[in-house]
Amino acid sequence: MQIRVSHSTEYNYNIPIYYAxxxxxxxxxxxxxxxxxxxxTDIEGARVEVTYDDHFGNLxxxxxxxxxxxxxxxxxxxxxxxxxxxxVSGPHVGFAPLWLYLRDTHLxxxxxxxxxxxxxxxxxxxxxxxxxxxxxxxxxxxYEIGTTDAQTTAEEALENGSGVCQDHSHIxxxxxxYLDFPSRYVSGYLLMDDRTEQVATHAWAxxxxxxxGWVGFDAANGISPDERYIRIATGLDFVDVSPVSGxxxxxxxxxxxxxxxxxx
Length: 264
What we know:
264 residues, alpha+beta, five-stranded antiparallel sheet, globular, Papain-like_cys_pep_sf, Bac_transglu_N, Transglutaminase family protein
């Protein structure tokens, strides 16, 4: 399947920016299950200071802006050919060791409710347990926009019983790590059946299974990723893969507008 993506992020300011520094993780890479046909990031109102691979292997750009701009516009767009690989993205590569992916973060710390959920997952086969974990989270946590935010922890989302894909992924990571599966957060895009315009990127989790490598689990939809998914970045939680993040100095007031189109 060939998927076309356009992802626009626009910041507007009421007065010129004194200084801003932004970090972008918006560029997919070719790998098992996806081949990047073309991709570029157009930037207006800021300049690229450096492009590098972070410690998780994500292609990262640093932008800076100062002085005159009242607006920063970032448009990432391109086409990716995908195939269904049953959620298996392949062996572990890169400088970050596997044991790092067992580490808790503030957003994925496993409290008693998550430990109880993890211990209740039946089976001994690793894949069976992980699929059971995904199904349990899908049943326990309803997909509801507006009930959580970017700072909501896995524990809070589980106790609330609702959240979005970020929350489903954090709960999965928290429980899977408690069960001794190295696990990582994945950001990307999902081609939906009923719409092309979207308001945010998608997220899911991957767990490392001996003999298979990294295997994806989208608890928000109750499936492993297929040919409708494009992977962008990976990390320990949402903070490590945020598409656009940064800091701003000065007294300007900021407004943000995001527009994403994903279509075949």
